[in-house]
Amino acid sequence: MQHCWCMKPTWSRKAKQGESWPKRETFGREIVTIYRRKTPLGNFAYMVENYSGVKRRFDSYKIESEAIEAANKLARQLSQKNTIGASMTRDQCIEYAGAIQSLQPLGITLAAAVAAIVECVKLTNDLSGLAAAARFYKAKHRQITPKRVSDAIAEMLAVKQSRGASVRYLADLRLRLKVFAQKFPCNVGSIATPDVQAWLDSLKLSTQSYANYRRVVHVFFEFAKARGYCLGNPAAEVDRPKIRNGEIEIFTPDETSRLLAKASNDFRPVLALGMFAGLRSAEIERLEWKDVDFKAGHIVIGAATAKTASRRIVPIAENLAAWLKPFANSTGKVWQGGWLYKAQQDTADAAGVTWKKNGARHSFASYMFAGCADAGRVAGYCGNSPAVIHRHYKQLCSPAAAQKFFAVKPAVAAAELSASVAIVTNP
Question: What is the reported pTM?
């Protein structure tokens, strides 16, 4: 068995007659020296000088023949390395020098790097996947900042608000994430996909509500991941339900008249903009009176206001102009009345009409398409595509009904000085 002596040996100067120490084994241009020394027990030990590594070492042998055999083998190995080096082509030399240069800043020898690569390839049987494996390892061992769920939610809401998120959007986030925080009073990074899935399943929601909660939680984890509170987004792998769009419902001209008649003064322009300009509720909540150009006869839906972040211009129909006329000198936000959903329900109850989800916008698109038969034009007003107009609003009403719908106008009695109006529907 080979032994490595850590201390410099004391070489024996005495040798048997005819023997000369140290001895040398030669192969090609390589010479390996063998020393003999006397041990404390009075025996001889044989030391083979080994320069195969970065530093010199001495390999110890008890038997002289073993030491000579080892020295001879070492000389052959060293000579073989020199032979390989001497036979290298210019390109191979350049490649070798480049490898050494690349490894130098890392403090890694070429031999160590090659040994590591060989070991990895043996494990994966794929050289091309080493970088991907290293990135995966780095991601899994990345340090995260501990953050309580409730604290991260508060931080996200503050950021969203500072960036101009709508009141409705913030209220939706706050409502759903409050339920989430109550279930998970822990650090964000400790929550896994099965935890989120089990929580959503336990809520026993409708398909649409399930999708809404999943969407909000997904947004939250994306925020947390970007700030180093968790490694990934556990909500990304949660079951995604398939939402089937329900039947499109629209208001009749008579229902429209009754709704506008019973609407409060602050809600009436909101309702008219939805009915006769097709604006989304969220867009109306962000709309300002300066965006309503009475002189030019159009409404500018800026990129910051539109849901699709794309600017569009909607013409002010004749009957819409009549409904908006009392507000021509208004400034600030069009809607300042708080929770829009409540205003919708209160108006519908007062008018004796069942409120239809997105009914005002659906009514505009349906009646406008029936009246002009131009899907591209209607899509431009609504801020979507002609395909959507054909798919959802084709043949929902007749051209005659469209004419009645856009003829719904207010009539202000001469004796009345308030903004309250009576409704007249022209045939």
Answer: 0.49
Examine residue 8 and state whether it is found in any structural domain, yes or no.
Answer: yes
Looking at 185, 202, 237, the residue that finishes a domain is 237
Instruction: Report d(CA 402, CA 404) in Å as an integer.
Output: 5
Q: In whole angstroms, how far apart are CA 346 and each of 65, 98, 323?
A: 107, 77, 20
The enclosing domain of 360 has a CATH number of: 1.10.443.10
The verdict on 219 and 119 lying in the same domain is no
Q: Could you report the per-residue pLDDT of 314-329, keeping only the tens digit for each?
A: 999 999 999 999 998 9
Name the more confident of 141 and 120.
120
- Residue range 188-200, pLDDT digits in tens: 999 999 999 999 9
In terms of residue numbers, what domain contains 192? 149-237
